[in-house]
Amino acid sequence: MTINTGTDTAVRKHIDVAAPPEHAFAVFTSGIDSWWPRTHHVQSGTLKCIGLEPRVGGRMWEENDAGDVCSWGRVLTWEPPRVFAFAWLIGTDWAPPAPDAVGSRVTVTFTPTEGGTRVELVHDQLEAHGPSWPQMKDAVAGDGGWMAGLRRFAEVAGNA
Amino acid sequence: MATYGTVLDALGDPTRRAVFELVAARPVSVGELAAQLPVSRPAVSQHLKALKDAHLVTVRPVGTRRIYHVDPEGIAAVRQYFDTFWHGALTAFKHVVELEDSEES
For the whole model, what pTM was predicted? Predict the structure, then answer.
């Protein structure tokens, strides 16, 4: 399938996983709490869990250790096991988004391959986050996001 | 666009966000912006200057007019930020997928 992003400033990533599309789709969506970088959350306190409502228009939300719940995204496409897309309402400053924020868009496709699944991710319509760029400069310098992700992997792998 | 709260913190004015959204939609002159917004031309110019200082918009002369458009530098930085985020997140995702799948088989 062709992904129409409408912009050449999109983030395009892909990763190959040794598992069937059904499993990859399930882990990415219903299992989002198992891989999301724990340092990336919009509320104060620590992130307790993150989840989503598995339907078009469903919320993507997080809960902190105080029990507060905040919605930070909205499901745009729900077509298991092949396509999942959502509106990303969080600016680069990671402040809680307004309910009517437009946001950018993340589209994830799961394509079967000989070795399992190719997962492609396109994050476009990034102009939506332009106004938070001044805050981003500090966020980039201190970004522990991907290091946090790798530490999380090490934890999960170690418990296997 | 970024949240209302984000704009107030970052640039101090929802009108500034509206200016940025219009510029992002298509290249425009100050006059065209003022015609679409409930603020004066000088106010629009002020917002454009702030957006320009933040590397969000840039201007080029077209004949006698000055046309504002999105500055690729600001957007490229936003793109780089999310590229870094997804690199880490997808790596963690891959390991969880393969770990759980190997346990089930």
Answer: 0.70
